[in-house]
Amino acid sequence: MTSSLLEGLNPQQLEAVTLPDVSALILAGAGSGKTRVLTTRIAWLIQTGHASPGGLLAVTFTNKAAREMLTRISAMLPINTRGMWVGTFHGLCNRMLRAHHRDAALPQGFQILDSQDQLSLVKRVMRGLGIDEERYPARQAQWFINGAKDAGRRASHVDTPDDFSRRLRDVYEAYDRQCQQEGVVDFAELLLRAHELLTRNEVLQEHYRTRFRHMLVDEFQDTNRLQYSWLKLLAGRDNAVFAVGDDDQSVYRFRGAEPGNMRHFERDFAGGRVIRLEQNYRSHGNILDAANALISHNRGRLGKNLRTSEGSGEPLRVYEAPTDLDEARFIVDEIRALRAEGVRSDAMAVLYRSNAQSRVLEHALFNAGLAYRVYGGLRFFERQEIKHALAYLRLVANPEDDGALLRVVNVPARGIGARSVESLQETAQTRGISLWQAACAHAPSGKAGASVATFIRLIEGLRASVAGLPLAETVQAVVDASGLKDFYQSEKEGADRIENLDELVNAAAAFNAEEVYDPNAPGGGVTDPADPTAALNAFLAHAALEAGEHQAGVGEDALQLMTVHAAKGLEFHAVFVSGLEEGLFPHENSATEDEGLEEERRLMYVALTRARRRLYLTFAQSRMLHGQTRYNVASRFLGEIPAALLKRVNAPVVRGFAGGAFGIPARVSAPAAEPMGGNGWRVGQGVTHPKFGQGVIVAAEGRGADARVQVNFRDAGMKWLALEYARLTPA
DNA sequence: TACCTCCACGTTTTT
DNA sequence: CGTGGAGGTA
Questions:
Q1: How far apart are CA A220 and CA A222, in angstroms?
Q2: Are A132 and A146 in contact (CB under 8 A)?
Q3: Strand C closer than 7 A to residue A336 Cβ
Q4: A686-689 and A729-730 as β-strands: parallel, antiparallel, unpaired?
Q5: Rounded CA gap, A57 and A79, in Å?
Q6: Please, are residues A581 and A662 in contact by the beta-carbon 8 Å criterion?
Q7: Largest CA distance in chain A
Q8: Can you state the angle between helices A225-235 and A187-200, rounded to 10 degrees?
Q9: Is A194 helix (H, G, I), strand (E, B) or coil?
Q10: Which nt is closest to the CA of A188, judged by C1'?
Q11: How far is CA A658 from CA A44, A54, A639, A653, in A?
């Protein structure tokens, strides 16, 4: 009963879980039991009759988080969680749009574009408009469109201060028109369209407002403007929004997250009801002290200090390596030692700022014969062969989908080359019809026309033969009939791809069992059961919205390698934060503006708070990056951690310190300090500049009149200087 | 149409 | 250094 549900909660957690029907902001620090509070709150609301399972909405950013929430709820309550509106923003909006596709002006079987699909559609549209791809990179246009949508703006409402943005606005407009014609929506469109649906349709708005008396939001600091607006719209004046987040862990500003939403929320919803969860159940004291000290350098925080009832534990271990290879070697040695002590590999993680850093580490681990797993990279539904198969399925579900047609019209090769496709595109363009219609009605003459006709017959034959079949058999039929298998049979990488195609059939079978036959499942029950392609559409939406695992879960007990971003939300017994160098972490692209630097610091805060017991901070004096050796100084973040919490685990040859314990790394004489092309300067050398003062040369490039050096100045920071002009004198 | 070479580029990323 | 995309050639 209630008592068992609430057992073991600390006073703040208890207060949050048992709040009355009001909005509140829960400032949940790292490791403070955030997910537990969220799920217990839901269970408590249901158990005490404050809400029915169908009367609340819980929204997360990832499918994983949504799944975990559902799992925990069903462990706490004997209810069927299937009908509950628990999911990602995109998943819930998809569900809403499927249910009201008419009101949202979408075809019943609308398809969802992932970023890849979106980019190719943007490219296609830009080519159609005859836009110079040199001056207007498609990526940038895509970024522009998504940025506008995330801010809730249609092309007609976008700010266009200059010709450049006017041109991008045109692309946006044409792109949206094309999406509408093809019956496809991108990720941001799911949210924007759902928002517009609710704004315009007061009946629906009232329906959902009356229904969702309680709304719960996870990772609130990551919401963007549109998501915030969506929540506000659904909440109306009366509903209770329970927002859980941590402004110190906001690390997605670069993709539109508005950490300021937390402050707005306090004003717009919470009426000052803010509960802080500061008791940490994860880390030893020294780790938390380090994290608290570091993050205190940020301004404008909502304010929060983590504490633990555990002891201080060990000091943080700092290792300074001469090179990135030595850094990797050190990490390998330590992991071996930890394993010998009985620590499992999967309880240890090596974190880095950018993916490029994983290579050296992987190399060292591979040579040492240590099992590891790298997060990131291609995911299941993003694989080429899977995208091909899905494109066939999309064509079966919706022949107007030009993107899908273009993807597979000639895969495997069936004699419909670039010329034929171009001719189809011309016809489609001039008549304002889809490629499919163009292909049906105006096939090119001769041999090419025959090929097009064969393709049309293939798809139509598939559609007919698949009607009424269960999903898995549909997928099987498409995989078989498309010729993809034969196609990959002859490829060298083919074996894996064929295996993946088989795996797609399995995924369809599993999906079938779990979701589609449940009338309340997202994407399942809300589609018309009489619609023969309902199951297929639900599966295709699933494929787009949940791209699957990053990598097959091969290594059972493997060391975890990932970016700091990817580590958010995870915890490990031992954590290595590697590459702690100026320019890398904080990254040089972020260090120029305050906002960027503060986000880097939050990222570092996330990194530190991943560790339960042991934390290593490592950096290298020199590192191979982009094909050349770079000489970096230690990250300023090391200097922001009280020295008393740190312990150096190597004995470097100290030559000179400037600006605190880690201002300038100790430097070994050779081979790190190399002479530079006979111009009298070398990396590692101390210099004085008339304006910037004292510093150390950390990198150099070019020669003769082009020669430039990067100098880390004690006071002025990192600068690139042209040797021809800069009046440098040896220090 | 398939392969190959050259060139540009190089935070972070879920949906 | 390594990759991925584009464009050119067999």
A1: 5
A2: no
A3: no
A4: antiparallel
A5: 16
A6: no
A7: 82
A8: 30
A9: helix
A10: B15
A11: 56, 62, 12, 15
Tokens of A412: 């495997």
Give dist(CA A86, CA A88) in Å, integer. 7
Of the candidate ranges A355-364, A509-518, A669-678, the one whose mean pLDDT is the lowest: A669-678
- Asked if the Cβ of residue A627 lies within 7 A of any atom of strand B, the reply is yes
Q: In sequence order, which residues have a C-beta less than 8 Å from that of residue A608 and are 6 or more positions away?
A: A287, A290, A291, A294, A577, A615
Active site residue A219: yes
Q: What is the DSSP string of A98-140?
A: HHTTTTTT--TT-EE--HHHHHHHHHHHHHHTT--TTTS-HHH
For the segment 618-677 of chain A, residues whose CB is within 7 A of strand C? 624, 626-627
pLDDT (average), residues A397-425: 87
How far apart are alpha carbons A600 and A595 in whole angstroms? Answer: 9
Positions in chain B where some atom is under 7 Å from a protein CB = 1-2, 10-15
**DSSP-H helix ranges across A282-417:** 285-295, 324-340, 358-368, 384-397, 402-408
Does residue A615 come out as left (phi exceeding 0), alpha (psi in the -120 to 50 range) or beta? Answer: beta
Active site residue: A35, A181, A384, A688, which one?
A35
DSSP state of A571: -
- Whether A64 is catalytic: no
* A144: enclosing H helix or E strand: helix A138-150
**Interatomic separation, CA of residue A319 and C1' of nucleotide C10, rounded (Å):** 55
**Tens-digit pLDDT profile for residues A685-709:** 778 888 887 777 776 665 555 566 7
Q: What is the pTM of this model?
A: 0.87
- Encoded amino acid at A309, one letter: S
CA distance A92 to A60: 10
Beta carbon of A601 within 7 Å of strand B?
no
Q: Which of A258-267, A344-353, A523-532 has the lowest mean pLDDT?
A: A523-532
Intra-chain end-to-end CA distance of chain A, in Å: 73
One-letter identity of residue A149: K
Joined together, the tokens standing for residue A591 give: 């260090």
pLDDT category of residue A512 using cuts at 50, 70 and 90: low
Residue A730, classed as helix, strand or coil, is strand
Choosing from A213, A610, A614, A667, the catalytic residue is A610
Question: Which among A12, A13, A34, A373 is annotated as catalytic?
Answer: A34
Q: Give the tens place of pLDDT for each residue, A454-477.
A: 899 999 999 999 988 999 999 999
